[in-house]
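Sequence in, structure out.
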Amino acid sequence: MSNPQSQNLLDLSNQLARAVARGAESIVAVHARPQLASTGVHWRDGFVVTTNGTVRRDRDVAVTLPDGTRIGAAVQGRDPATDLAVLKVAGGALPVAAFGDAGALRPGHLVLALARVDETGPRAAFGAVSVVAGAWRPWGGGEIDRLLQSDVNLYPGFGGGPLVDTEGQVLGINSGRLSRPYTTTLPVQTVNRVLDQLASHGYVRRGYLGAAMQPVRLQEQLRSRLGIDRDGGLLVSTIQSDSPSAAGGLLVGDVVLAIGGKPVAEPEDVLKVLNGDTAGRTLALKLVRGGRLETVDVLIGERPRGH
């Protein structure tokens, strides 16, 4: 008679092996740096997503498919702010990834990191979810829709590969550059948003005002007189010449309360507003000027590349 505990472990082991096999159907080895390859995920037909930090060259890039075939790839675009890069490959070369629900994850859920570095087959590392939290912004400035970290070890070559659940469904892209000390995964929602722009433009367009702002509290008497229901806003301290803010009539000393209908109280709030598809759109800035409420319409520019 078999031991129930041993059978449970065997069932779990088989489940994880099936998850690896399923997830590996859509991953490739990315040859875009010296020596060891990294990993990429066939996210949409013809588009492989990996991490920007593992793509060290723009030419002579190739990927190895699950059947061992090596084919050429072109760098479609990069976004250093989120550490993502997209490669263009021939359509129909391999299955597209199946995606799971990262929003359902909780600390303690079992996950796997997958990799492919050559023609020998997939590699896997096993662990548990450590941290799940809301949106955050890494040092590069990009907005990540969800903080997802695990205790899975990212061995050499695992960067740019997927984190998958126990069904082999992709939860996001593992970033070695952002993984200190825990493995940090860029969730599907973030990857989809960045991929849309890289596929269309080759880079991520982010809005640009050209004004420096700092938090400031408004006097209670002024707030009461103007009917302002928050403590303060953002004081405009400097405006760059020939910037969208200058062209729109924003002035040093203005206190901005909202941009495009979204309240702003910290510089981070401005970045969140401009991080969306705002470049080329006219947004209304609600502000206090000279003790009065005013609205200034600003045509949002495009943040200079590399900023």
